[in-house]
Hints:
Blueprint: H1 3-7, E1 9-11, H2 13-30, H3 46-57, H4 60-84, E2 89-91, H5 92-105, H6 108-117, H7 122-148, H8 158-162, H9 167-183, H10 187-193
Amino acid sequence: MSSERKSLIFDKVRLESLTDGVFAIIVTILVFNISVPELILLAEGEHTSERLSSRLLDLWPDLLAYIVSFVTLSVYWVAHHRIFRWIVNVDRHLIWINISFLMTIGLIPFSTALVEQYRDQQISIFIYSSNAILAGVIIYSLYYYAKSHLELIDKTVHSLVKNMPGSRILITILTYSVAISFSFIYLPASLYLFLLVLLPEFIPDRYF
Length: 208
């Protein structure tokens, strides 16, 4: 590696800290999309309790969207962690790929709120899925960039990293692509298909 190239390589700690901080803020913001039901108290006792129970049950689509988004962010955080466990240093290009990834996942609370309020609209499913797909494409680009620049990778795992296909990230991208397709056929099924993003976590580590 040339001395000029070496001078553009930085320690990864600050980038990991920034990423963890952004993830922590985003998953916290998600819950703000769920509003506590407001009741006009016309009676006391049992009837009031029943109305509150009914209003709470009406929140299930919001809770489902919250769970799906939280799981999606968790899958991407785990993917990011898996990538960075092999990375020892970062360069400017990798930093900006990472920042682009953070900018994209930063939109997930917005796209989640869109699905919660307009779950009967195909465009909201499309925007939410596209948001998740774009985040997946960017984190895969981050993975591929690191894989192609072995000077950033721990020397003891070069051969292992070169043979890792990135299956988990690709399956997540595929899941959201299928959800978009289903939204044209049967819209409610798309929300449940989002839960399939958990599937990549059952892939053995050796396949990434």
